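hiii so my PI (J.) wants the whole complex modelled not just the main chain, which honestly fair. so below is everything: two entries, each one labled with what it is. i double checked the lines twice but i was tired so who knows lol
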Amino acid sequence: MTELLNPATGILFVPAAAALLLTLVPSYRIGAWINVAAAFVTFGCALVLLVWRPAQPGRLLVVDDLNIVFIVLNTLVGFTTSLFSRGYIAHELEIGRLKPAHLRFYHAMYQVLMGAMNLALLTSITGLMWVAIEIATLTTILMVGIYRTHEALEAAWKYFILGSVGIALALFGTILVYSVAQPIVGNGLPAMTWSTLTENAAHFDPMILNIAFVFLLLGYGTKAGLVPLHAWLPDAHAEGPTPISAVLSGLLLNVAIYAILRFKMVLARNPETIAPGPVMMTMGLVTIIFAGLMLYRRRDIKRFFAFSSVEHMGIIAFAFGLGGPLANFAGLLHMAMHSLTKSGIFFAVGHITRIKGTQKINEITGLTTSHPLLGWILVASVVAIAGLPPFGVFTSEFLVVSSAFAHRPLLALPLVVGLLISLGALFLRLNSIAFGEPSGGMASDRMSPLPILFHLGLVLMIGIFIPGPVVSWFQHIAASLG
Amino acid sequence: MTAFALDMSHFLAGGLVLLSFTLLYQDRLPPLINAYGIQSLFLSLSVAWQARIQDAPELLVTAAIALCFKAVVIPLVLHRLIRNLGIHRTVETVVGIGPTMIAGMALVGLSMALMVRATSGIDVLAREDLAFALSVILLGLLMMVTRRNAVSQVVGFMSVENGLILAATGAKGMPFVVEMSVAFSILIAFIVIGIFLFRIRERFDSVDVAILDRFRGERP
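here's the output for the full assembly
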């Protein structure tokens, strides 16, 4: 009975139950509300888990300082996105891009996706995490292709092939980690459990651990969209429904980063392995600069912000690769800030494409004149994502850059160059979208801007003042990451 | 463990690698699919053998999945599919069979050198199996990058997956192997459904009234 009362099991069961229920409810209006309610209850469970952490919930789950950050972030953005999605899909239905039957599927899949991501974060078993990430990938593939257009299917197919290759590499890495742990800790589950893996990592064969990490980094790195494995990401973001772009950018990429971090922690306990840091830093830097350059050539607004996500994943990978308490702290903070800001931006983009009826950047101009509220929200969000004060992304980027200068001054240079490149691209595009002669649709925006304002408010608050408990909590995690 | 048990498992795993090579040089789809079916049959035998020598009966489920699903159902469905798509006679221009084979041999050499040297610390059975499995995986990936046709890419991916199942069953007492093979079967089923979707897409391009509805909705 105690297991049922544990909020950790609630985080998994609520989405699962909601997904089942949603397949049975024919009305999309009720479905949308059930979706919101389930996401809210899940978020509530996560908050309970944050303040009150009961005894370890069974052998298969683990709750510690690291994954609770991801879980709270995941369920929070999941909840606000479900609110946004309610307004968004009503419109999609109106213009006939989606049919009520699609929506039943869509809502059920949304909950399956949330449940799978929560499982990936909560489980203490490497193999189970792999299965959960695979399920999350499959559901997003299905949702990316939901419009059934030529482009949507092609994007889904590309995502599918690249995602499957990534997942295959990650599984081989997982198997290698098991087979290196098995002679030391014995057969079965212990050799796949995070806690026993990290405790005994010092006795593992360093060579195999190295090879395993390379496979894991490439595999989960594909899911995180690190260059050169990012090719699926912009298409998937551009062609799928906007709430899914928000969840992909804000959450699924984080889950992949989480997987890499966990394995990095195992490696950090074994002094004879290669340092995973330089590999991650190189991939991060290449990603930042490449994505920054690609930003200039984008014509589609969702593809544009998708490349911005790639760039931020590069920053996060760089920060964690740099290591040390400060850089890890910055990496965690940046991840949280990026999730909130980028999902907020995708909400705003959803409103804009709805009003203007197009995703082409050069057909959207003068937004602050035609729709002042939405226009200025977009301006504020882009200022935030570009890493300018007073928003939280500035704080975290500043910390990344300053710790890079402190430890690797030579690497800080390309980092700063990369950041400036993308800053330029963001403002170039923002200028044409937000200012000038208004063009395109003039219909008033009937969707509530509350979810975006909530995200922006949180990011602004962190930018101005980070509460003490949050700082000490993040510092504690940063120290444990090594 | 007897020498015979080791030899037998090496023979079966080596057979998988050999069949990966035959996959590499097929330029028509039907023999490609047949070669994949035979590879899956070898996988199923190899997994069944592992179940016997590791005394792990649950692996028989994985072997059964490999036998029924991957060696029989998937090839049959794919044969039907390529006939429906009208691509069963097309000759695929594989970019230079010679260079591809040499690259394949280099990859196998690499994985042998890497895994056998690196894995001196672990169980001898798992060690050789991991080396063979990595060869199968790399050859499958090589096939995926050298092919243009969606069906042959998928066959390449499925042979990668055969290599993964081989690695997972070779790791002694690994939990969730059965669950993983089921998860992979679902993935493959989705891929095949995906190819069906592609056929639908091609119909959209030619004559289907559904396309009109779509355009009406998108372009007011």
